[in-house]
């Protein structure tokens, strides 16, 4: 275990320095006085009331001997920067060093209540860390909930993101916040709203939705650096709109679920959506109506109409019956394993298994299962998205039933409740060590985060509000085929 250099010292109140770079602040403070003023305006809770309550408790009962402030000596300032305990030290300084300070009183009228209190001690026992990084590591571990402002004050979502980034644990959410803060032309109104509202957790939820990437064309590296194809001005324009709408909830709608976010993005004006065309030369949206995002990858058909061959030729002109052109089509980027039968050989895009299996290995699936796999591996999911979705759901229900019938709890398969049966199946397989941790996590995310089964059901029932998106269909299929392939391979032993 690494030995951390720590000392316990009595430090005068004047030598302590309230941290202007406190993780609670959206924007760093200019100096110590500004930091104390900002402490009364942090986003979470009711800081003005809580700070007064905390000062009263310290004046009457003293500091908690089990919660010494954590400090680090700054050679440039010649002061001890408070890493943990800024709320307590602020209260003590307002009772002593900065008592009756007019600048603070003008900004924080509640300070007058603290000025009337007293703190008899001139020095405070502190934990002094030689290494700032080690002090910040401890800080990230100890924050808990509060007790009407007297106990440790829990960090809000932004403070947690900021503190974790200092320890090398960045996040997509924090990268977006930093992008906005550091943008050269950032709006003062945006900065003010970001500093005064509880919205970071909402952004964290939104960034996790699949459609975020589709609408804004933003991705992240392994260290959570932003990657975008639009110019920086457009990215700022889009993110400013999103964050302001999150802050202005509920006026702009509800962002609690994926469906809420889908509805929000479907109604976004075109100027707030990525302007970079996709690989087919089309933008995510072409007008400012509620036209569906990702229209190039879906076909929403009226239940009373049958799409004519002429319409199909217009949208698929490069594949219009010309075999030479079909043969030149590039394979899709995702796995494209073999097809089961030469009879179903196809150069068109299809949902396929990821491995090359011998024909006789599929006997364990029975004729029904084998036929579904054959159809999936031969049908063009671009031309027939709804049929592909129906086949995906069919093989998913089929293989889930096969797995559960072989388990110790076959009764867990319930007709009409595929989501419940699916969860029972993957939990049982994880307990039996059939699934490794990575596979289990991937399968659970498919069910719980992306609502993939609900998506398939909507496609099958021709819900006019749902379009079949290539990304969703492919990603979901990659999960389904894990269950199929494990079943096939497990029955060869």
Automatic annotation (TrEMBL):
Residues 290-342 are annotated as: Disordered. Residues 321-332 have a biased composition (Acidic residues). Residues 292-313 have a biased composition (Basic and acidic residues). This is ParB/Sulfiredoxin domain-containing protein. The lineage of its organism: Bacteria, Bacillati, Bacillota, Clostridia, Lachnospirales.
């Amino acid at each position: 275990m690494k030995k951390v250099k720590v000392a316990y010292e009595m430090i005068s109140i004047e030598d302590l320095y309230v941290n202007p770079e406190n993780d609670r602040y959206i924007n760093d403070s200019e100096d110590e006085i500004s930091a104390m003023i900002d402490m009364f305006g942090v986003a979470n809770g009711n800081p003005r009331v809580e700070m007064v309550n905390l000062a009263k408790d310290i004046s009457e009962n003293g500091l908690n001997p089990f919660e010494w402030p954590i400090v680090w000596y700054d050679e440039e300032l010649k002061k001890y920067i408070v890493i943990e305990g800024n709320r307590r030290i602020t209260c003590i300084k307002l009772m002593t060093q900065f008592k009756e300070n007019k600048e603070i009183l003008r900004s924080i009228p509640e300070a007058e209540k603290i000025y009337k209190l007293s703190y008899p001690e001139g020095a405070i026992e502190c934990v002094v860390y030689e290494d700032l990084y080690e002090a910040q590591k401890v800080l990230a571990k100890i924050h808990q909930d509060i007790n009407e402002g007297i106990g440790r004050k829990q960090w809000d979502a932004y403070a947690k993101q900021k503190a974790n980034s200092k320890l090398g644990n960045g996040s997509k959410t924090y990268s977006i916040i930093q992008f906005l803060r550091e943008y050269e032309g950032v709006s003062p109104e945006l900065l003010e709203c970001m500093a005064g509202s509880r919205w970071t957790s909402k952004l964290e939820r939104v960034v996790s939705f699949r459609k975020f990437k589709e609408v804004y064309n933003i991705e992240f590296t392994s260290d959570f650096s932003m990657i975008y194809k639009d110019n920086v001005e457009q990215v700022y324009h889009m993110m400013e709109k999103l964050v302001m709408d999150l802050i202005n909830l509920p006026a702009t709608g509800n962002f609690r679920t994926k469906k809420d976010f889908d509805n929000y993005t479907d109604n976004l004006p075109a100027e707030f959506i990525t302007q970079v065309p996709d690989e087919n030369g089309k933008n995510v949206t072409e007008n400012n109506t509620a036209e569906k995002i990702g229209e190039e990858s879906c076909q929403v058909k009226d239940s009373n109409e049958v799409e004519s061959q002429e319409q199909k030729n217009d949208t698929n002109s490069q594949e219009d019956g010309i075999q030479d052109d079909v043969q030149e089509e590039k394979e899709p980027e995702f796995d494209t394993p073999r097809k089961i039968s030469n009879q179903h050989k196809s150069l068109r895009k299809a949902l396929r298994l990821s491995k090359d299996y011998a024909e006789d290995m599929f006997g364990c699936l029975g004729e029904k299962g084998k036929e579904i796999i054959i159809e999936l591996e031969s049908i063009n999911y671009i031309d027939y998205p709804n049929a592909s979705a129906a086949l995906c759901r069919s093989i998913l229900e089929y293989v889930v039933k096969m797995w559960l019938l072989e388990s110790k709890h076959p009764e867990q398969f319930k007709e009409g409740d595929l989501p419940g049966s699916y969860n029972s199946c993957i939990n049982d397989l994880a307990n039996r060590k059939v699934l490794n941790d990575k596979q289990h996590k991937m399968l659970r995310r498919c069910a719980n985060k992306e609502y993939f089964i609900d998506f398939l059901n909507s496609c099958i029932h021709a819900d006019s509000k749902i379009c079949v998106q290539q990304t969703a269909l492919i990603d979901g299929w990659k999960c389904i085929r894990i269950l199929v392939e494990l079943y096939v391979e497990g029955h060869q032993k």
